[in-house]
Amino acid sequence: MSARPIVLSGRASRWGLGLVALFVSAFLIFPVLIIVPVSFSAGSFLSFPPPGWSLQWYERLFSRADWLNSAWLSIWIACLATVFSTLLGTAGAYGLVRGKFPGQKILIGFILSPLIIPGIIVAIAVYFFYARLQLVGSTLAIAVAHTALAVPFVVVNVSASLYGFDRRLEQAAANLGADAFTAFRLITLPIIKPGIAAGALFAFISSFDELIVALFIAGPTQVTLPLRMWESMRNSIEPTIAAVSVLAVGISVSLFLTASWLQIRAKSTLPVSE
Amino acid sequence: MSAAHFLRRPEWLVVPLIAFLAVFYLIPVILMLARSAGTQTDFAPLLEAVSSDIARTIFWNTLKIAVGTTLATLVLAYPLAFFIATAKPFTASVFLAIVMVPFWTSILIRSYAWMVLLGRQGLINGVLIWLGVIDQPIRLLNTNFAVYIGMIHVLLPFMVLPIFSSLKAIDGRLVAAAENLGANAFATFRHVILPLSMPGIVAGCVLVFVLALGFYVTPALLGGPSDMTISMLIAQEVDLYRWDYAAALAGILLVATLVALFAVSRVVSVDKLLGGVR
Amino acid sequence: MSVLDHRKSKPARTALGAPVRFAGISKSYGGALAVSGVDLDIAAGEFLTLLGPSGSGKTTTLMMLAGFETPTTGSIFVGERPVTSIPPAQRNIGMVFQSYALFPHMTVFENVAFPLRMRKKSAAEQAAQVKRVLDIVDLGPLGDRYPRQLSGGQQQRVALARAIVFEPPVLLMDEPLSALDKYLRSHLQTEIKRIQRDLGVTVVYVTHDQDEAMTMSDRICVMHQGKIRQVGSPEDLYERPLDAFVAGFLGESNMLDATIASTGDGVAILSLGGDGVPVPARNGVAGATVKVSVRPEHIHVAAAPDGAGAWSAAQVVDTTYVGDHRRYTLRLPDGATLSVKQQIAATPHRHATGETVHLRWPGEAMRVFAHGVSIS
């Protein structure tokens, strides 16, 4: 970090910049907020502002088994993907950060590539592959595909906390009588735990929100929440989706805030300042 | 082998992850690419994809949208990133949260929000009519404009964050020094701040461009029939059971993505680039 | 002070220190020698400092003793036991790390109890031992704090407590005070010294600060470029440096060029600044070029030549007042510059810049080095 932040001289430029920043931020956040009043609309089709207020869309949501089943299915898949990607990603990040081997850079690029390769490529590649193995329609298979997409989040977060970890703490533990595994269990693991937790939360959200892969490899009985929203949005844009969205955003945002908080905490438990 | 063994030779801990990604990610992609060679290995699907006018038009359209989105997000993101980087800590954290929250709202939900806003009965038409700019609702949804708006909205954080971190890393004393040496605000920006934030700009542009190339959900929901992207074409060909042809198109898209990434990996390291994704 | 009361009421349990021996130790990293040919015997209960500039190999030597580096050749013994192939966790050597390496997620108590926990001591014994050492380092009431809630000096004491709680026969300290301010540093130097004496533990201390080394050590081992240059008491090293590096590294020395005019009977006559000066020298060849070192405080400045000893005229280039002494920069007739310290109490007169003065110093204050090695 810089010793001194950039200071803008001139009040006019400061205000002008602030105004532009405000406009861009409003553009970012306003559409997300607009869903909230729509979800309480008394109207029967999509219009804004709503003609009146009611809880009808929430009632409909909770009374209809298909939406609830989709939500549970998505949560279940996301949980599986989170467990898989956290285990694989944490071990992998440890190996990448601590290990020495040729081609490390290329390997990191490969592991992180699912974040940036177009979703459709992964989706149809996995679809063709699953079709060959007759795995299309398996819940576990969806979770496995989501794991490949979620694992980079775990690797990025865990590596960051491992890079910030002071190796002398492990030396100190060894010096005080701890064997390698004990030092890992009692010193390293507790200190990088917030990084692991943050990675796990990001992994959960990425699977919970994933549409494109599920679009291809889910069977007719496995309608995940994003899939049901997608189908519903292509047919009619009734406010039920607004109600779902408000709930989903609520969950995502609170998980996201937890993850950020964990990241901040991960930084503050790093070694004491000199 | 004991746990201690793995801690002494941590290289081995990467093996399960690599094996997993090889089986469920790398091999499927390679098998898919192999399909584009066709059943007779005569590369018929690939040749068809290259020579198809429709595919070419859609590729150009996708490229145009990706470039347009990249430029628009850059113009919008730079002032915001600059504002956050120079703001007081509390203001900065509030604005950063605003950038991050939609980042973690699913693309579906954000597209839905734009459907609400841009629809015939939507807020924007309502406001325009109330202002007397128009007499009756105009068509905003299912247009090229809606695709741009939706994609800019989704991709803006990917531009803001890398630029923000490169601006934040600039030592303010350099700016003070430039001013002390007689540079006015514009000259300081032009000769000090802009060059030093260039890595962030490059990273943001590549990230947005590459992600925009593969967009599917937003154009499918907000665009009209003429706004088809290459991802949508691929999906459509899969639905028509023309799998080899779809694989050929996907191969071309993958190569385009990798070329863009490789071109900048000489300027910005790929893991730095992806660090901005968080 | 409470610490002292505590000590009086309960005599310190002494864990007798063990001797340490380095035999032919070398360490190379891909061909580059970081440490070469280190032979060093450290007596039980001795306070030995490895002193040297950064990159001199002192920390590598310490890390080999702790077990974090493996020597390329040679063996290390603690007591009678060869430890070279023993993993760090089983060496039973205490260590205070640079910037302490306190576990940030554990309280002071948990940090200090950690080595006892690793040694499977009962909870009651852990509590008793931790209390005992926290009292020794004067941190009794702070057991529930986390490291980040402590000041630098307190963190340092926790690190020390953690390193001695399991009563190791040898205690290693790697620049333990480098992060602290000057006042705290000198206070803790005294504390560490006192604790070391009470416990009777052998201490191997690494520092690049020569004042710290002089203050604390029984013996100092000066290292440079991976080799031991000289081992001896602080006084030995300061008064009788064996080579030009030691003379320059410990305290300040003026290095003057001279030629041996003639030799005989343990004395060499040097031509120095145009004069013939007799100095003690074991061997030397007439006509050889040598370096002569003189400490700034050994040179006497006067307005006119007076009394016996080596005299030389010089011109005052600069003077600085430093409280208890005055510092002169002088130019000799041959152009060499000389730094001189004059105690204000003894010589209150101030010589002005540009003034010509006369210098005298006793012949035994000079050390003569031929090719960097002392021949005095």
Secondary structure: elements and pairs:
The complex is a heterotrimer of chains A (274), B (278) and C (376).
Chain A: H1 11-39, H2 56-63, H3 65-98, H4 104-112, H5 119-133, H6 139-163, H7 168-175, H8 180-208, H9 212-217, H10 225-235, H11 240-268
Helix pairs in contact in A: 1-11, 2-11, 3-6, 3-8, 3-10, 6-8, 7-8, 8-11
Chain B: H1 3-8, H2 14-35, H3 44-51, H4 53-86, H5 89-103, H6 107-118, H7 123-131, H8 144-168, H9 172-180, H10 185-213, H11 217-222, H12 230-239, H13 243-265, H14 270-275
Helix pairs in contact in B: 2-13, 3-13, 4-5, 4-8, 4-10, 5-8, 6-8, 8-10, 9-10, 10-13, 12-13
Chain C: H1 2-9, E1 20-29, E2 32-42, E3 47-51, H2 58-66, E4 73-78, E5 81-82, E6 94-96, H3 108-118, H4 123-136, H5 152-164, E7 170-174, H6 182-199, E8 202-207, H7 210-216, E9 219-224, E10 227-232, H8 234-239, H9 244-249, E11 254-264, E12 267-272, E13 275-280, E14 289-294, E15 300-302, E16 310-321, E17 325-331, E18 337-343, E19 356-361, E20 367-370, E21 373-374
Parallel strand pairs in C: 3-8, 3-9, 6-7, 7-8
Antiparallel strand pairs in C: 1-2, 1-4, 4-5, 9-10, 11-12, 11-14, 12-13, 14-20, 15-19, 16-17, 16-19, 17-18, 20-21
Helix pairs in contact in C: 3-4, 3-5, 4-5
